[in-house]
Amino acid sequence: MFPDSAHPLRVEATLDPRLTRWAWLVKWILAIPHYVVLFVLQIAFLLLSVIAFFGILVTGRYPRPLFDFNVGVIRWSTRVQYYSSAVLGTDRYPPFTLKHVPAYPIRVELAYPERLSRGLVLVKWLLVAPQFLVIVTLAGSGWSLYRHAEEYSPYSPGLIGLLSVIAVVILAVTGRYPQGLFDFLMGLVRWTLRVFVYAFLLTDKYPPFRMDLGGSEPVTGSMLKRAPA
Predict the structure, then answer these.
(1) How many angstroms separate the CA atoms of 190 and 196, rounded?
(2) Does residue 229 sit within a domain?
(3) Each residue of 123-162: pLDDT tens digit?
């Protein structure tokens, strides 16, 4: 599915070229039905993560049905936040589904790990702590790692919220969403999701301490080698 050198998490996004200037003011209201459903899904996510912890500890494998469900929750919540709060890069209402929707403007995929380290499952939270501290600063005070998947708020005091507000204010004034801000925000979203899936045991691939900017995943060295001349 992914080249060997690529991160197992892939986040691809397309900026809607015809965003409505003022729709962002009401999107959070329109998304309330999603928030209600996601509240229940959050609880299920946490419970299944605890079960997965013991599954990995005993067998070295993340139970596949639990993995698919939890990735689906991340996928769903990321679509909702992309629409209603973080980035605000589309006017297309998000679907009510855990499944991958290739046609939606933001797409999240995570390769299933056939084996996971039993030892790492005990210390991942500690290993990722330096990145977690940076992400907390970027996302705003009072922010928690799990709530990244559900509570990316442009009205929070963090950098992500501030830049999201700036982007849509520029959109309202000029009719255009600034491409540079979109690329930067997507870098923050991608970095934070990488930290999230590592901390919640969905991969053993340690998140790179960097932002990969833009709507598309970076082209890896192995992919460049296979590119036609």
Answers:
(1) 10
(2) no
(3) 998 999 898 888 777 665 333 444 444 444 433 446 777 8
Q: How far is residue 219's CA from residue 63's CA, in Å, rounded to a whole number?
A: 30
CA distance 197 to 204: 9
The torsion angles phi and psi of 11, rounded to 5 degrees, stand at -125, 115
Ramachandran angles phi, psi of 137, nearest 5°? -65, -40
In a domain, 4, yes or no: no
Handedness of CA 110, 115, 119, 121 (dihedral sign): positive
Tell me the pLDDT tens digit for each residue of 23-69. Answer: 999 999 999 999 999 999 999 999 999 999 999 999 999 999 999 99
For 133, the token pair is 């501290």
Contact of 3 with 220, CB cutoff 8 Å: yes
What's the pLDDT at 221? 43
Structural domain includes residue 116: yes
pLDDT of residue 229: 30
Q: How many domains does the chain have?
A: 1
Domain that holds residue 109: 9-217
The token pair that represents 101 in the structure block: 């929707």
Residue at 223 is within a domain: no
